[in-house]
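Problem: given the chain below (337 residues), write out its structure.
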Amino acid sequence: MNTLRAAIVGLGKMGLSHAAILTAQPQVDMVAVCDTSVIVTSAFKKYGKAKVYGDFRKMLRNENLDLVVIATPTKLHYDMVRAALEHGVHVFCEKPFSLNSAEGQELVQLAESKGLVNQLGYHNHFIGTFREMKRLLENGVIGELVHFSGEAYGPVVTKEKVGTWRSKSSEGGGCLFDYASHVLNLLQEVVGRPVKINGSLLKQIYSKGVEDAVYTLLTLENGLTGTLLVNWSDETYRKMSTSLTVQGKNGKIVCDATEIKIYLKQANAAEGLEAGWTVKWITDLAIPVGYYLRGEEYSAQIEYFVANVRRQQPGTINTFEQGLYTDKVIEMIQNAA
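Solution.
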């Protein structure tokens, strides 16, 4: 395949990061960007080479794109993703996928019917420690599983305020959509898909219209039960901290973005693991990338997406279908609260 024609819509924090990473990809030409902010687009007009648009559909009509990265607010995902797919454009969309599963289901079917590459921005799947945890669990290193916990804490909303999208559930605001979705998606692909909510608390701490904390009891498709514990109003954390813990009859695994700790009752020679605790660091497990920004996982996910577009073959990591399932679990939690 020749040089890929790419574009980005939504030039906020994530969109700007994606723009830098995408521009660094070999044989990818970022021909267009789209945003309604004059401050942002004026900078691209002055310093960039990409054509600047304020109208997404006009950009699709004019640019003959191979791929597009959609990093707009969640409330805009459905219309934009659908328009891109209908134009035959491969789509990378930020998380969460959609505000309701009916819209998400339509987009999944449309992408599949057209054979287009589709991917969501759940970047934790490109962090080496979580990938190692998934591999160890698949190999049965800690034996029969008995319990799990998925957790995330951070200082996102630490005082009462109004007027931002984070305080509006209709725009994808709230801890459940914005924060807990990361943990749910990671859980479903590393440990197992939730099929039942056994109880859920959505707590308001500072926000008025949305929740600031999510505490849920889950049952997975394999029968395993455990907890989801997420709070974005926790000032004891400097930034978002996501972790998974899984207890088995033969040991335990505790994993976050920086390290994975494995406890075994007996040594596992095949894995080179001794009895007791073994710690593996992200520096030994990180995915090599050609361009580093914020964390290798952000570049790795874009490189994976671009590689699949070149192959003209949808990938198996962070697909629309997987994101749709996360959205369905979110709805289950809302209904149980």
